[in-house]
């Protein structure tokens, strides 16, 4: 594993957008361990305090900072912003990024569900048409939604509930650390350019089975509560609501039930199971925490 691009000077430099996020954080750790110079992109760089990572101002709301953030980088990890103008923003970022720079985009599983001119395919096309060496990552739902306070953590730890509109569908939950491991390879190694990687965990689980595994981790019963999509998206508005509703529609259609072996093919180790993920994180779900 060496420099993605050889300009003959210094260490490999990678900009990780969303460095405080679910995939950005483990990715930064992996890159630092490889000796990479990591620019940790955040809309508030004062909150980035990761050993070996240089806090870097990067906001989708402030294009004036993009040139400085991408200056001299060999590769960029792009966490797609979940907003209507994401395709335009990503395209604009890439016009400011030297064409030798590798681009790895975090997209989502089965992005084609929306049709070729849907929002997710357009965000991908901004990358595939941008003139850079690129890799697209299309992961299933992250296991980290169970331990993130912005998603299900408090309902699981508080009321012992997993409210989720599934209508019997299964999901192949993936550990974000496995997405980061694939991203690390794509950012640093030869052989991943032009690849679209559909990434999943090792098994597709129903919501009741997921709740059973969460029960063991939480040390108390956790029950799956079936919701309608309208109930699940209550409290959201605008594009966020549309995207959230579409995502659950896709859950119902089985978009996230497909199990792939891509994590193992790319990284050489199998994707983590939900049980393994919970073994590492279970104190977070205990009612007392
Ligand atoms: N969660 C899932 O299950 C899942 C599944 C498949 C695909 N995805 C996709 O993965 C991506 C990440 O989703 P996530 O929910 O897991 O989020 P996340 O990566 O945990 O957090 C989002 C990141 O965006 C950054 N951010 C927020 N506002 C920003 C701005 N104005 N400019 C630049 N960066 C900003 C935040 O960092 P700062 O606050 O430090 O800027 C944060 O690190 C999304 O495109 C999502 O659709 C998610």
TrEMBL record:
Signal peptide: none annotated. It comes from the Bacteria. InterPro entries: Ergot_Alk_Oxidoreductase (IPR051604), NAD(P)-bd_dom_sf (IPR036291). This is Nucleoside-diphosphate sugar epimerase. It comes from Micromonospora rosaria.
């Amino acid at each position: 594993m060496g420099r993605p691009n050889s300009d003959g000077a210094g260490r490999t430099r990678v900009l990780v957008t969303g460095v405080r996020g679910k995939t950005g954080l483990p990715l930064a750790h992996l890159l630092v361990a490889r000796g990479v110079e990591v620019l940790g992109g955040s809309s508030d760089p004062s909150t980035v305090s990761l050993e070996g990572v240089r806090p870097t101002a990067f906001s989708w709301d402030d294009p004036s900072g993009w040139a400085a953030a991408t200056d001299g980088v060999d590769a960029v990890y792009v966490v797609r912003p979940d907003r209507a103008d994401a395709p335009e923003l990503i395209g604009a970022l890439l016009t400011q990024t030297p064409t030798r720079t590798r681009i790895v985009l975090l997209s989502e599983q089965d992005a084609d569900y929306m049709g070729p001119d849907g929002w997710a395919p357009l965000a991908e096309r901004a990358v595939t048409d941008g003139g850079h060496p690129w890799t697209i990552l299309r992961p299933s739902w992250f296991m980290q939604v169970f331990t993130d306070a912005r998603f299900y953590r408090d309902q699981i730890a508080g009321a012992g509930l997993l409210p989720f509109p599934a209508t019997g569908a299964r999901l192949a939950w993936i550990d974000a650390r496995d997405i980061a491991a694939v991203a690390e390879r794509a950012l640093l190694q030869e052989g991943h350019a032009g690849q679209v990687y559909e990434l999943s965990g090792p098994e597709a689980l129903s919501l009741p089975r997921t709740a059973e595994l969460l029960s063991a981790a939480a040390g108390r019963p956790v029950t799956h509560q079936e919701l309608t999509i309208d109930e699940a998206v209550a409290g959201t508005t605008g594009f966020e609501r549309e995207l959230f509703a579409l995502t659950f529609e896709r859950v119902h259609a089985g978009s996230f039930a497909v199990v792939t072996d891509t994590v193992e093919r790319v990284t050489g180790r199998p994707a983590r199971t939900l049980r393994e993920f919970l073994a590492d994180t279970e104190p977070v779900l205990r009612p007392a925490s």
